[in-house]
Structure formats: structure tokens, C-alpha cells
Design goal:
With 473 residues, the chain is mainly β. The protein has eight helices and 30 strands. Helix content is 11%, strand content 30%.
């Protein structure tokens, strides 16, 4: 569900430099784009890891969009009627501005730290406030890094100690196009991946200002929170880490489609048509608290994974025959903290067993909780594996949730359901604790740090000494 992340619209005031909830397709000329550095280690089956210095780019929805000079195309949740009377004219008139590395920090709260990034929740400037961020790892100056994770493992270290109930410091993969939709837009998108265009996810977000190079102004609802347009942008999504200091989950979301699809109507799966859309919006979430282990993850030393300290997490994508071409059958997780390997929790919900995401665990969880098994209907792990095989883009984000207050991650969801019913309680947070207005006013100093990102063969990204060391159970 990281995709409610798009509800994270920037709360910027009218001045141009902070009109960051905006996106555009032409390239502005006021500020040269500079991508902050972030390293990636690639590891072989022998355990040898090679460090490569790559970069990240800010999503286009956070950027200033203007007419090529200093007039905003979009302000206060609404499009300028003169510059944007229709989608094509708007795309032609509007420019997406770059950001320097200094502005990444001072305007968006994105800081380069040792071997990684720190993302601030609230960044205040003389012009207003920016809330959270979403960034993509780059292969080069104009192309997203494409990860092929089947029969691989993905590892990084997270420090979520400063994240409160209702916040989500997320690391995930989505099936965006490597060029940010440049080629597919038929010339409408001139900015591309270099400026963070082309986002999509399994929630089929409608709050993207441009989709496939076209302004999403049809039926634009500026009174919605966040403002939304007629079209959505759907694609497969693999949530590796959605977490604050109180709860966490990892979740595959398969889709019936290949790559990004601009959706409308039933295909988007909105509201009462949730399970008729092209993507599995619920996914199959492995949330230790929801699955019955209330002592596994939390913010002090009484929990086996102590979120008050950094923790390294390893996610393995297992195929049925141990080859790159095999079908995905299992998504496994373990943690490393204080030099100890911590095995993932075992499900203890009645009728559900296992310590990883398999089709069987997903079916049992859906049955026990009374949820629709859209995961199976959308093809389950096999289809998720096909998306991983095609290649997906790595996303880092920090966000709050104006749609459902992040209750689906860390509290009782739905809030009106009986919390003692199977699957309703997702974490220890109160149902009133995740309101964005409260969070932004009360915890502006919150942040999350992601570092030591590694990818490689199964068993390669964490040392054999740790794997064979003392197990914490």
C-alpha cells in the first residue's frame, strides 16, 4: 500500500520554488538538475561485493511546474485555466524544473549520508513546508536502474527509529519504464527519468499531474485530499519495507498488465470496483503483528527486532527450481541486528502458518481474515515473479496517509471493525494517531535513513559468518 504515498502532496505555498506538488513534461531552465549520490553493492555467489556509486532522482510530482518563466501551471491544488485549458495544451505549455543537490536537502529534506540517504518528514523554508519525498535509483543520468530480482536477494539497512504511528518510511519496487516514459509518450514527455517522470503502482494513483506525458486535468478535483484527476497509473509493485517504529510489512502486488497502464473507470479498481481493476491493491502482506506475533517488531529492547536501532533486512526471491527462469514460489525475509541473524516471525493466526510469503500462506490469510483473495485472481507469486523478471525500479519514500491515516499498516483496519476479529489489528497504534495534520504539526523532525543497499545471488549480500552465527529466536 505504499502507494497511498501519493497522498503525500507537498504543502507548499504559492511561490514558485516550492510549488513542489507539481509535475511537468518539458524541461525548465532556471535550475540545472543534480542527482544526489547513493551507492549500490552488487554481490556474486561467492560473496564478493562490488560497490558502484549511482544517484537518485526526485519524483516529478514534487517539482515546480511553470510556463517556462515564473508563472505556475498549477497552484493551490488547481490548474491554471489559461495555461492548461486541455491536456495537450497544458503539456505543451508547462515546464518541469530541476533541483540542485543543495535544493534536494534544503527544499525536499533529502540528505546524502554515509552509504545512503536520510529523508526528512517536514522541511521548512521561507516559502512554506515540504512533506516527505519519493526518489528513484538511477542507472545513469537519464535512465532508471532496472532490478531483476527473481532468484536474487535484496538487502539494505533501515533506521526507522524516528518514525511515529501514521508515518511510512518505504522501500519498494514498481514496474516503471526505464526512460520514465519518454519513448512511449510520443514526444509529449521531454523530461523523462532524469526528472523523475513515469510513476505508477498497484494502487493506480490518480493524483499524478501527468501520465504518459499528458496532463491529468480531465475531471480534476482540487478539493480532494490529495487532488486527483480522471486517470490513474497502474503497474505491478513489490513492497520490501513499509515501516515506522511500531509496525512493518512486506507485500507483493501482482497485476494483470505489463508495465504501466493509464487506467480509467473499472480498470482502476476504485471504490466499490476495487477487485475488478487490473492490479491487486490489497496484496499479500506479511505483517508480523497482524499474523499474531506481537513481540517481534517494536521500538525497544523487549522486541526481537528493535526498531529503536538500525536493522539490516534481507529479502530473498526464491524460484521453484533455483534458477533465474523458474517460477517465483516464495519471498523470504530475515534480519540482522547487533551481529545476530533474526529469523522472520512465524504466523500464529488461527488457520495460518509459515514465516514467508507463499501462495499457500496468502490463501490461508485471506480465508482466515475474510478478505477477497485478489492476490490469487491476479496470478499470485508466479505473476509477481514475471514482473520481477521484466525489471522494476527501486523507490525510496517517506510519507503520511491522507486517505486512511496509515491504519492498514500500524493500527486497526478498517477502524470500524472489531479489533479482535482475525486480521483487523495490524499494529499497536491508536486509530486516531495517524492523521497527517497532527503528525506534521507534532513530529516535524521525524526522518528515516536507508543505507548499505545490496543486491546479488541468494546468500551473497550478508556474510557466511553471520548466516552461520547465533540465531535469535
Amino acid at each position: 500500500m505504499a502507494k497511498m504515498a501519493l497522498s503525500l502532496a507537498l504543502g507548499l505555498l504559492e511561490l514558485a520554488l516550492l510549488s513542489a506538488v507539481l509535475s511537468a513534461q518539458k524541461i525548465g531552465t532556471h535550475v540545472a538538475e543534480q542527482h544526489p549520490e547513493m551507492p549500490l553493492w552488487t554481490c556474486s555467489a561467492l560473496g564478493d561485493c562490488t560497490k558502484e556509486t549511482l544517484t537518485v532522482v526526485m519524483d516529478s510530482n514534487w517539482r515546480w511546474i511553470h510556463d517556462g518563466q515564473y508563472t505556475n501551471c498549477f497552484k493551490d491544488g488547481a490548474w491554471d485555466a489559461m495555461l492548461c485549458p486541455d491536456p495537450d495544451t497544458c503539456s505543451s505549455n508547462c515546464h518541469l524544473e530541476g533541483a540542485s543537490t543543495q535544493e534536494y536537502a534544503s527544499t525536499y529534506g533529502v540528505h546524502v549520508v554515509s552509504d545512503g540517504l536520510m529523508l526528512d518528514f517536514v522541511t521548512a523554508t521561507q516559502y512554506g513546508e515540504n512533506y516527505g519525498s519519493r526518489l528513484y535509483m538511477m542507472e545513469d543520468a537519464a535512465t532508471y536502474k532496472m532490478f531483476h530480482l527473481k532468484n536474487r536477494e535484496f538487502t539494505f539497512t533501515a533506521d526507522s527509529s524516528q518514525l511515529h504511528c501514521g508515518m511510512n518510511g518505504a522501500v519498494y519496487f514498481v514496474e516503471m519504464q526505464a526512460d520514465g516514459g519518454l519513448a512511449k509518450s510520443s514526444g509529449k514527455n521531454e523530461a523523462g527519468a532524469a526528472y523523475g517522470t513515469g510513476y505508477c503502482d498497484a494502487q493506480c494513483p490518480h493524483d499524478l499531474k501527468f501520465i504518459e506525458g499528458e496532463a491529468n486535468i480531465i475531471d480534476w478535483n482540487s478539493t480532494s485530499n490529495p487532488p486527483v484527476g480522471h486517470y490513474g497509473a497502474c503497474c505491478a509493485e513489490m513492497d520490501i519495507w513499509e515501516a515506522n517504529s511500531r509496525a512493518t510489512a512486506y507485500t507483493p502486488h501482482p497485476c494483470d498488465i505489463t508495465g504501466l497502464e493509464r487506467c480509467e473507470g473499472v480498470a482502476c479498481g476504485d471504490k466499490n470496483e476495487r477487485y475488478d481493476g487490473v492490479c491487486d491493491k490489497d496484496g499479500c502482506d506479511f505483517n508480523s503483528w497482524r499474523l499474531g506475533d506481537r513481540e517481534f517488531f517494536g521500538n525497544d529492547g523487549t522486541f526481537r527486532v528493535n526498531s529503536a536501532k538500525p536493522v539490516t533486512l534481507v529479502t530473498q526471491f526464491i524460484t521453484h527450481d533455483g534458477t533465474d527462469s523458474g517460477d517465483l514460489v516464495d519471498i523470504r525475509r530475515f534480519y540482522v541486528q547487533d551481529g545476530k541473524v533474526i529469523q522472520n516471525s512465524e504466523a500464529s493466526m488461527a488457520g495460518v502458518s509459515g514465516d514467508s510469503v507463499t501462495d499457500q500462506l496468502c490463501a490461508d490469510l485471506k480465508s482466515a481474515s475474510g478478505d477477497t483473495n485478489d492476490f490469487k485472481r491476479k496470478g499470485g507469486l508466479k505473476v509477481m515473479g514475471e514482473a520481477l523478471d521484466r525489471g522494476m525500479v527501486l523507490v525510496f519514500s517517506l510519507w503520511d496517509d491522507s486517505v486512511s491515516d496509515m491504519l492498514w499498516l500500524d493500527s486497526d483496519f478498517p477502524a470500524t471493525a472489531n479489533p479482535t476479529d482475525p486480521g483487523v489489528s495490524r499494529g499497536p497504534c491508536d486509530t486516531t494517531s495517524g492523521k497527517p495534520k497532527f503528525l506534521r504539526a507534532t513530529y516535524p523532525e521525524a526522518s528515516v535513513t536507508f543505507s548499505q543497499v545490496k543486491v546479488g545471488a541468494i546468500g551473497s549480500t550478508e556474510s557466511a559468518d553471520r548466516r552461520l552465527g547465533e540465531l535469535s529466536v
